[in-house]
Task: structure prediction
Amino acid sequence: MKILNSAKFRLTLWYVGVLSCILIIFAGATYLMFTSFVYAQVDSTLVEIANSFENTFRSEVVDEDSKSDKKFVEAVNEATLEVRFKNYRLFVFSERNKLLSQTDSTNADIALSGEKLMEVLANYKNLSAAQTTDLQIGDNSFRLLFQPMRVNDRELFLIIATPLDDVQELLQNVRISFLLGVPVALAFASVGGFLLARKSFSPIVEMSDRVSRITARNLYERLPVGNSDEELKNLAQSFNHLLERLKLSFEQQQRFMADASHELRTPVSIIRGEAEVSLTKEKRSTKEYKETLLIIQSESERMSKIIEELFMLSRADSGEKMLTRSSIYIDDVLGETIRSFRTIAQKMSVKIENEVDIEMPAQADPALLRRLFVNLTDNAIKHARSLVKVEAARETNRYVITFSNDGDPVPAISASDIFDRFYRVDKARSRDNGALPGGGAGLGLPIARWIAEMHAGTLQLTRSDQHVTTFTFSMPI
Amino acid sequence: MRILLAEDDERISRFILKGLREAAFAVDHACNGEEALYHASINFYDVIILDVMMPLVDGFEVCRQIRENGLETPILMLTARDAVHDRITGLDAGADDYLVKPFAFGEFLARIRALLRRKDKNFADTVITFGDLRIDPKSQTVFRGKTEISLTAKEFTVLEYFARHEGRVIGREELSEHCWDETFDPFSNSIEVFVNRLRKKIDRADEASLIQTRRGAGYIFQASSNE
Result:
């Protein structure tokens, strides 16, 4: 049931539901008020007639000597004759429930008789106070007013009756008009509501159409912000921001993939090319074969290093917490790392000076810190002219370790990019350095910085001029 | 045939140079785009091979400038990037073919031969035969009748060049341009030495030499006159 899930439909449903509640309550209340108003009108006329009879009667009784029954009954009749209202009939009963007098039935077309009323009255036990009631006789219904009266110690009952046919017809008309009017109004309202909902949803539908057309291939597309409503504008803008971020990370991902595949293709090309060229001839000298194998070996090493680094970066990107801290002395890890570089440094006639003379106890990941120091030392040796110097200091709440070399300065334009993945200041130079096994792929510094950040520290290029280039790693104690 | 290879990565150029030289090509090597442009402007090449990512001037730009200078030498681009738009850029810059690293060396050589064939109708034949002399550039073998003649790569280069231009006088200069790389010394007599050695290997004692000397002009390769 797709339509039931449509917001347009549900909005219309809600709208119609709420509106019908309001209309029904309103119609009901109006009807009730109208009914009680009409009855009040009827009742007040009945009371007026009763009062007018009473006044007339009292004046009749006062005028004459009405002590006798006869006189009294005459007075009642006199007074009764005075009461002439269309559609109203007056009945007067004695205290013994005996009909004393009634208005002429000719001026009121009311099918009521005193006998009938007496039957009805017999059902009423307590008639001491004035009250009104409905009476149904056959198809006709009536409104009755009972009014007890005490005149000269005699008890009288007045009953004034009026047919309710007109009133009921009126009320029925009102009922019919409400019963017809409310659904018609609701029908109009639901059509209107649906159209309105569709109109207000159409920009969203359009937006969703556009968004659904955006794929990895056209991430540059944006939603029109235009002159739509504030909410829709915000939605479009939010979408556009999302698309922008998506595009950036997608591009970054693509660039990374391209760079990674490029980095891996180079050693593969070399290994493959060397092997294939070697095999084109049936026989070669041992020296030639050895040369080829050495190249293949060093390229394989380079490739595994790149793969390892890529793997590390992908774990870093996935946000995996891979820090296993333990109590270590940073100076130990650093010392070991530098010692492991002695041979290589010698081969490249670079001197490494380890000037760390303080103890640096810390809670850190020894494997990752070692990797950080390896990358920085490797980088320093690669770019040094003849000297690499490692120093350390303890500041109030952090350790500061610096790696300096006396090589050419990092060009100013590159300074901000050297921590980017695969970035190389000079592609040709840093790759051709054969002495370091498996030259860098431009991932050393990004990994080093990531490790520093994992330890809540920083890694920065703090100095680079004609004399010295310094990388500074600092880490909270 | 003479080839210019422009490739900045020494480890890659090492095996390409070795492979090409062993496949009987004379090869010059440029380490960056500028060098490549310089070489292309002063020497004649039958094929130019350009790496895309090179320092100073990249491969696309080198290619564009070579074409702007009016050279129609076949150009083969090499790259480690295989994105379609890279290939389009390369071909639009005027390259004739595009090969993505890592490549099979056999395919690389086949593509170079294909480029040579397309450019010059003299290279249309994949196997060249003159009488009972059969030269197969693909396998670098030469047969005279049923006997295989063993030639060095350089000798093969020279023989193939002669055979490809049968019946035309070829000057020493032309020969050195197409069959020797930059290490050739124009004042040496190495061409004469080569040609003589080649004659000894391919000629039959009872027939006139396939490679005749034209005094002051050069050499002419002609199929046996007794045919």
User: Anything to note?
Assistant: Residues 178 and 187 of chain B are 17 Å apart (CA to CA). The longest helix of chain B spans residues 105-119.
